[in-house]
Amino acid sequence: MNWRLLLGGMAIWALHFFALYGIGSIWHSGMNARLLTGLMTLLCLAGEGWLLTRIWRQSGDHLDAWMRHLSLTLIALASLAILWQAFPALLS
Amino acid sequence: MRSETGFDPALYERFPTRGERPEGELEELERVWRAPRGWRLLTVVNNNYIGAFYVGAAFLFFLLAGVLALFMRVQLAWPLNGMLPQETYNQFFTMHGTVMMFLFAVPAVEALGVLLLPQMLAARDLPFPRLSAYAFWAYLVGGLAFFASIFVGLAPDGGWFMYPPYTSISYSPGINADFWLLGIGFIEISAIAGAIEIIVGVLRTRAPGMSLDRMPIFAWAMLVFAAMIIIGFPAVILGTLLLELERALNWPFFDPTRGGDPILWQHLFWFFGHPEVYIIFLPAAGLVTMMASTLARTPVVGYRLIVLALVSTGFISFGVWAHHMFTTGMPTLSVGFFSAASMAVSVPAGIQVFSWIATLASGRPRMNTPTLFLVGGIIIFVMGGLTGVMVALVPFDYQAHDSYFIVAHLHYVLIGGMVFPLFAAFYHWAPMMSRRPLSETMGKWVFWLMFAGMHLTFLPMHLTGLMGMPRRVYTYLPDREWGATNLLSTIGAGILAAGICLFLIDLARNFRFTTDDDAGNVYGGSTLEWLPTGLYSSRSIPVVRSRDPLWDDPALPRDVEQGRYFLPNSATGLRETIITSPIRAEPEYLQIMPGPSSWPLFAALFTAGFFLLLTVQAYWPSVVSGIAAILCVLRWLWETDRPVPDREVDIGAGIMVPTYVTGPRTHGWWAMMLLLTVIGMIFLMACFSYLYLYGIHPRFWVAPPDAAWLVPILLGNGAGVGLAWLGRRLLRREKTRLWTPGVLLMTGGGALVAAFAADIWSWRLHGLSPSASGQGATVYAFLSLQGILAAIVFIMTCYMAARNSRGLINRPADNSYDLVFLFAVYTAAQGVVSALLTRLFPGTAF
């Protein structure tokens, strides 16, 4: 386990958030903005999934196990936040 | 068990060692770490002293800002009160907010980090003690001078977030706003220096065996706190720089009539400003977690979930800045995104609150003073958090915006989230540095007065706000019916102040500062700061085998005190600490630490002089003071990074580690990378400003200079990096005489300056004036940033050439050389990116 895997889940959330900020600022509230938001959300959720599969396969001693659990929980929280973040564009 | 560095974890089994330690070892340790006496105490750099000074100074600013609040409350107690004239009132509320946020809240938690972290991690000191001393003195001198502006009627009066155009030169022509912009910009330097110190300290100076899953929660919290400062503070540094440039030189960053935009300030300010709330809250949350565990006498419930909450808050809090700007007319979708993030950030905060409740519920908490402050703080914070979710809802925020409802909300969050935990921490950790603990009886009075006073002050304010009273008005008419709730708030403020006065009496009666004769572990804490300590921290540095080492190994304090663990002596006869690996805390090398010095103090005084003289427009004295500050810093550095006679030393039980290491694993390299991240964030924010202004007002933009100018700029920057790299390579050759590494580095610095000169010359020839438009202003802001970096590189390279000429460069590799090399590479990269951005985007396509 390393820092990149530990912080990867939240880093993808950050990427998603700032992309959404950019989309909202450039395309305002039109259909293009909503489509791009949906696309970005799918990409980032896929990124979280990819990270999850990488971490799932990790093994090691007690510290590795602790970091693995922490990383997986961060991915779960980040995925939820990514989905939640997209709701204003996808549901309204 | 796996290893991170090649260190064999089985070696930990050698500890605690057996047999007697040699005579005179402890006396030698005491001699090496002895603090200067009398007036020379001003040159002290040890964290026990600097941390205590820091906490004391932060508390002084808390009291000063509190007195301003009392004046404001008396003024608002009834309608049309005439105690404070409008202009004075404006200065008071601006100073109250500014001092509380910038001079109390952030420095107070940073101070606790300086004070507690080395002991918690069982390090001898933080890794850059002179930097700590510099940061403290800069903060104290700068802060006092800033506060003194109120006595001559020159205090800033634009509110603690200083929105232009109100604070632009047209509407605030005096130097009041300049005091804020330069004063706060300067104090931020101190905060960033502290943050770098804390990150490197937490990740590299932990006791052996203290892997990430055994770190005290406060260390986790301080790690996230410091990382957030590194990312968040550059935005406000750039913002203050831009606004000052607009005021002093008429560069229109925020003037919409010339292609600027006042909303840009709000983006820059709040990108710092909202994370700032969490920057204040997270360390306090770390303290609460540790105290809840100690006071309930049970391990923390949900340690991993709390780490999860800290880390995720560190990220999500950067996605909420624009919820302060819902009413500025942002696109509806963007408003929705920020509203969603504002609600999401309450999830990790909720995790922490539930963990505290579970910890207290699963243990046997004693209702002593720290517990009362803890529970009281949680109640207040939850109430503030709930109103926070209310204002995250856009329609409600439209109603409550800029009303007293917001004032009530933010005070509930900050007092519950930071002030009450801080008072709990005062009572809890006072026995660690005082001969006597604080009084339990008085402490309970203090708590109940503060708790009752706080609610009486701020609970009615919600109603005052919902009844329509805007914040920042100096008085109101009788027919608005705000008198009753305002009077209640004023009475509450008096009760709150009475509680704090009683605390001062308690301090005066019972607090007796000491570094080696403290009252000890009164509350039965489980972590390493409760080991017997002196100025050298603990006598020996223990192997950490669990999260609660003092509970799990009752013999630990005795063994540590008898020198049966790591570094029971001074291995080199100098101040030193063990540098460990960032994840598993395996011993890597011995860091030689600098001792007391007057140069950080002088450097801080002259840096403060530079900014203050600039504020009062005494330009030449300011330049002289700035040069003096640079010379003092160079003089302080001159004594460091010297060769050590013993290349390897025994740090206990026959374990040998090197005394001089270079490259990416060194603490100096880490600090430089963090500094470059700060500078990189300032640059990133400048890029954002450039693109933002183009997006808002493209009609003001003109074509850039010919792209052919890129050739000398790219060549100059490339040559600078190439020469520095070659010099670094030549360090390995013992017999190099001509074109020594120092000369090559200096020539490289010259090439970077030449590249900058080519860049600025191209724009001068092009004719775009910085005062002409937002484009001109941001282009020249890029050039200013680059010019500062190029000048710093040149000074650093000259300094290295001087060290080279005196034979002070270590071969085959030298840490100082490496760090200057890194800085030069970054400077070249930034020069190239800014030259490309300003020429190729938008280019001629507008």
Automatic annotation (TrEMBL), chain A:
Name of the protein this chain belongs to: Uncharacterized protein
Alphabetized UniProt keyword annotations: Membrane, Transmembrane, Transmembrane helix
Membrane-spanning residues: 5-27, 33-53, 65-87
Organism: Sphingobium quisquiliarum P25
TrEMBL record, chain B:
Keyword match Signal: no
Record localization: Cell membrane
Membrane topology: Multi-pass membrane protein
InterPro entries the record matches: Cyt_c_oxase-like_su1_dom, Cyt_c_oxase-like_su1_sf, Cyt_C_Oxase_1, Cyt_c_Oxase_su1_BS, Cyt_c_oxidase_su3-like_sf
Record domain Cytochrome oxidase subunit I profile: where: 33-557
Transmembrane stretches, start-end: 49-72, 92-116, 136-155, 179-205, 217-243, 277-296, 303-323, 335-360, 372-394, 406-430, 442-463, 483-505, 599-616, 622-638, 669-695, 707-726, 738-758, 778-799, 819-841
Keywords: Cell membrane, Copper, Electron transport, Heme, Iron, Membrane, Metal-binding, Respiratory chain, Transmembrane, Transmembrane helix, Transport
GO cellular component annotations of the record: plasma membrane
Source superkingdom: Bacteria
Pfam families documented for this protein: COX1 (PF00115)
One MF term in the entry's GO annotations: cytochrome-c oxidase activity
Recorded family membership: Belongs to the heme-copper respiratory oxidase family.
Name used for this protein in its record: Cytochrome B561
Organism lineage: Bacteria, Pseudomonadati, Pseudomonadota, Alphaproteobacteria, Sphingomonadales
